[in-house]
Amino acid sequence: MKGALQLHPFETARVAQTVFPKELGSLDARVNLHSEVKGQGYRSWQLLERAEVDFGVEGQGTVRLTSPDARTASTLLVMGGMVTLSPELRALGRLLRKFAEMPVDHLLIEGGRDAAGAIRLSKVWFDSPQARLLGTGEVPAAESPLAARPLDLRFDLSARG
Q1: pTM of the model
Q2: Phi first, then psi: what are they for 84, rounded to 5°?
Q3: Residue 52 burial (CB count, 10 A)
């Protein structure tokens, strides 16, 4: 089996609202999504279970941290920096607060899934007026659902101001 999927433009907030009707979307963006799928198997379920996928997402929009825990963490980091006289902790707290609602000029995620189910993020690029993130990541193959597996992300962060 070989196939391709392209969605142009894809509204992330509308999809998140459909799946989680009581939660606000944390990324409100218009993105282009593309993927290529290759699978081998003797039965139809094996085609998808053992599929190899290359994917990419590109777009722009607004990132929102809707979790009250993020706001609390920001306040605690700033206060911790004041108590310990650590400018790094204070800066990290202010940066986290800036992420509460941030316009994104460019978002790019590229990666793939191997036949065993491991996911690699070969490029994660996030560029905004306040910050730039560039990183890679991976999710190991496992029998557990994707949401229950650990996500390992490594980023370089540049912040303005």
Answers
A1: 0.72
A2: -90, 0
A3: 14
**Token pair in block for residue 38:** 């290759």
Residue 83 pLDDT > 60, yes or no? no
Q: 80 exposed, middle or buried (CB, 10 Å; 0-12, 13-18, 19+)?
A: middle
User: Which residues on adjacent β-strands are paired with residue 11?
Assistant: 30
Q: DSSP character for 100?
A: T
What residue ranges do the domains of the chain occupy? 2-65+100-159, 66-99
> For residue 14, how many other CB atoms are within 10 A of its CB?
11
pLDDT in tens, 88-108: 666 666 666 666 677 888 989
Token pair in block for residue 117: 């189910």
How far is the CA of 60 from the CAs of 11, 95, 145, in angstroms? 10, 20, 29
Tell me, what amino acid is at 108? Answer: L
Q: How much of the chain exceeds pLDDT 90, in percent?
A: 22
Calpha distance 158→132 (Å, rounded): 5
Cβ atoms of 60 and 29 within 8 Å: the answer is: yes
How long, in residues, is the chain?
161
